[in-house]
Amino acid sequence: MSEPLTPEERGRLEGWLARTLGAAAVRIESVRRLAGGAIQDNLGLVVTIEGGPRAGRHELVLRRDAPSTVAVSRPRLEEFALLEVARRAGVPVPEPWCAHADPGLLGKPFYLMARVGGEARGARLVKDPAVLARGPELAAELGRVLARIHALRPPLPNLPFLSAPADPLAARIAELRAHLDGLGEAQPVLEWGLRRLERARPGSGELTLVHGDFRTGNLMLRDGRLVAVLDWEFACLADPLEDLGWMLAKCWRFGAVERECGGLGPREPFLEAYEAASGRRVDRRAVRWFELLATLRWAVVALLQADRHESGRERSLELALTAHLVPQLEADVLDYLVLLEGEGG
């Protein structure tokens, strides 16, 4: 695998950082590609800054587009703006440092943020003794943080790129169907699921900022407590129930299916804490509908990820293997359809 940054890129980045941070000099001590980042390229940097308000040694993350990406992912500068707004609203996120729009510096736009310590990998978190000991408390903590995100409602002048269609749920379903049509291969189970969603669209009637990917794997935990909410590239204006359904969907429990809040804790403490913090009453049946939407959405994203490999745009074993998730997701779609019918949804 090629070096994450060429010597020329390192030199340009050091010079730009020194100018941007008002430092006498910046030295990049080390750089390495971080695990994960199937859609984005995440580089871990250790930098020493001489002079200026940031003087000292820092661990940072540089985030830029991977060689290919998916259409639903936001550009890096928009994600950086989202981090800034979320941090000011009291949402635990990595501290955003600076961003650069000109691709001439590193080949693509990028931003830098502080690196936070902890564990985000779902397969490890669902087995972590500290997480297991705090399951209900952790679920409630996540509900309160999500309520803080959903307290951000339009208009949001610092996020001018956010807009919402007249019917966000219809637009979401149409978007998923368009992606399926674009892949050019029949997906009857997923199409059936989308049709079921169209027949009954409960929703809350509200429009707020939603994270769009709030789930185990994008939550940095330490000692069973939340440290930071990561990966804001899918954030948008939508029904806040979308985030609730995404967090509770079976596909994000990493095998711990009995702990319905992302494999980390039980469902009800999460929903009850969210209700108390947000002042909203959550319709449990509507949440099930959004869990089905979440499952369908992840299945479509998995197919898009696999297509990045199969099309030749980006050769990657990780992307190629993503397609193997689809049969289980199809089984989950069928399970949710049966569950919704049983609940009269």
Structural account:
- This protein is an alpha+beta fold and 345 residues long.
- Helices cover 44% and strands 16% of the residues.
- The protein contains twelve helices and nine strands.
- The chain has helices spanning 7-21, 76-88, 122-125, 129-133, 135-150, 168-183, 188-199, 241-248, 267-278, 284-310, 317-322, 326-342, and strands at residues 25-33, 40-50, 56-65, 96-100, 110-114, 208-210, 219-222, 225-229, 236-238.
- The strands form three sheets. The chain has a five-stranded antiparallel beta sheet with strand order 1-2-3-5-4, sandwiched between helices.
- α6 runs parallel beside α10, α8 (241-248) crosses α10 and α10 runs antiparallel to α12 (326-342).
- The chain is globular, with a radius of gyration of 20 Å.
- The N and C termini lie far apart (50 Å).
- The model has no long low-confidence stretch (mean pLDDT 91).
Could you estimate the helical fraction of the residues in percent?
A: 40-55%
> What structural class do helix, strand and pairing data support?
alpha+beta
Described by strand count, sense and barrel closure, the largest sheet is: 5 strands, antiparallel
Tally of helical segments: 12
Principal-axis shape: globular
Mean pLDDT: 91
Helix-strand sequence: HEEEHEEHHHHHEEEEHHHHH
Record field, number of beta strands: 9
How do the strands of the widest beta sheet line up side by side?
1-2-3-5-4
Intertermini distance: 50 Å
The radius of gyration over CA amounts to 20 Å
**How big a fraction of the residues is strand?**
15-25%
Q: Flag low-confidence runs.
A: none
